[in-house]
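We close this part of the discussion by returning to an individual protein. The amino acid sequence and the backbone structure tokens for this protein are reproduced below:
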Amino acid sequence: MKNKKIVYFISNYGILFVFVAMFVLFSIYAPNFLKINNIFNVARQISTLGICTVGMSMVMITGGIDLSVGYQISLVNVCCAYMMAKAGINPIIAVALVILMGTTIGFINGVIIVKSGVMPLIITLAVLNVLNGLSFMISKGLPIFGFPKGFSVLGQGTIFGNVPISLIIMAVILVLGAFLLKKVYFGRYFYAVGSNEEAAKLSGINTGAVRILAHTLCGFLTAIGAVLLLSRTNSGLSSNGAGFEFNVITACVLGGVSALGGKGNIFGALIGCLIVGFLENGLLLMNVSAYMQLVVKGLLLLTAVCYDTYMIRNSERVKKIKAINANNEA
């Protein structure tokens, strides 16, 4: 009984404990970590990560993955920057167009995955290279800048004193994402498809449409996150999103979103996002090299994936034992 309580606590609150422990350690050893300016600075930095994490969570809950997220950000950055700085397009129209473009990319990813039957890992890896090439073709590898002054408000502006506007946008999207997964019927379909696709089909769920919807929403949210990143950096660069998908996947898995599908929630993903954001910030303040930061994040992801797989296999083993015992009793 005691072991069951320990396992329950670790499964449901372990990630929160890790975040608190990490926060306390950095508060002691990282200079200026607890300063309010630093906290708000991290909030700005993780706004894109948090928004993209919501989209990736939806895809991973259905049992998929999207490795093209990083270069979706790069392409949206470059296209939005080009339209505003080079083509003279109104920022509102430019933002609307690139969000539509990001949504379309997500939709195309979903359609190809469903219609081809090829693993999402392979499809999105191929799309990643296509998007990377397109972003460099448009920017020619050079930064694009010179945007209208008002555009920077999204990523750099504050409200109610020092609260970043980008943080408010992220919070709204997190709440909407949690509502969609828990209260809207097709949100529950995501879990059904990720848990057992064949059973979901037999129950009448259009599993292909659910997967396409998940990827489409991921593309939509990724585009929003990319616009906030562009507004914060004020420079459209093809390398802006390079490797960003690794941070997003790490945040999801750390937050309890299963790499095998069917499990996860937005609150956990948020905690995973906070861990990744404050980890980078704390290590940077401690003058830890960027290469060592990659090592630490890689080990975190490896540990989280191994733990997730172990827990799923252990749960399946317990179910089989219970089923055998029930048959024997009958």
